[in-house]
Amino acid sequence: MATEKMVKKRADKIEQILSVATEVFSEKGFHGALTDEIAERAGVPKLSLYYYIGDKEQLYKAVWKRLEDQFVPLIEINEEISAEENLDQLLRGVAKVAEIVPAHSMALRELFAGGENYPENIVKDIELYLERFTRICEGLKREGQSGKPEFDVPPAVIAWMVYSFMVYWVITVPPMLKHEGEQIDVFRGIGTGTNENVVAMVKKLVFRMLDCKHPE
């Protein structure tokens, strides 16, 4: 029993540190973040960071791993269902990934800083997402019996457009709705976040770019 309590206490402490570290890295990037600040905001001695996780680089990697564990399950596909059903599933998964704002903030800060500390495993996860999206697009073409697309866009490009749009929608629309304007009202009617309206419109765009018939 004592061992179980100790294990849980350690897990809770690590989660507490990683949660705060995620906030700091997303706000300031790898180079701007200080372990002193992370320790202070987490309410632990600085030595605890090294004891539970390691130095700043190891802490950064652990934060990325924690984020990766959240979004990798969201981009899975199922070989037992149709391409369209997989598209629905994947789009909703990407929508949930888009809501993990700290990951995008960290990624952009790292890329703008030159990408020296951009995790290789995240690049591999992106490659996995693009590959799965491509397979779904190929399945949609077969199921939809489409002809030659009017716009010959590689599925990987469509996948990147979908991901980028959803992330940008989550980040930019809420502050835009504080203002008035005819086009802003269009956004207001759709709603914030990656809601079902957004997912449905993105799905229609995917079908349009593939020149597939969209089911009514």
Supply the CATH class of the largest domain.
Answer: Mainly Alpha
Radius of gyration: 21 Å
The percent of residues in helical segments reads: over 70%
Distance between the termini: 58 Å
Return the domain count.
2
CATH topology of the largest domain: Tetracycline Repressor, domain 2
* Shape estimate: globular
Layout: helices, strands, pairs:
Elements: H1 2-32, H2 35-42, H3 46-52, H4 56-71, H5 83-98, H6 101-112, H7 120-144, H8 155-176, H9 182-190, H10 196-210
Helix pairs in contact: 1-2, 1-4, 1-6, 5-7, 5-8, 7-8, 8-10
Observed structural traits:
single chain, mainly alpha, Arc Repressor Mutant, subunit A, Tetracycline Repressor, domain 2, 2 domains
Describe this structure in words.
- The longest helix has 31 residues, at 2-32.
- Helices cover 75% and strands 0% of the residues.
- The model has no long low-confidence stretch (mean pLDDT 90).
- The radius of gyration is 21 Å and the shape is globular.
- It has helices at 2-32, 35-42, 46-52, 56-71, 83-98, 101-112, 120-144, 155-176, 182-190, 196-210.
- The protein is mainly α.
- Helix 1 (2-32) packs across helix 2, helix 5 (83-98) runs antiparallel to helix 7 and helix 7 (120-144) crosses helix 8.
- It contains 10 helices and no strands.
- The chain has 2 domains: 2-68, Arc Repressor Mutant, subunit A; 70-210, Tetracycline Repressor, domain 2.
Summed up:
With 216 residues, the chain is mostly helical.
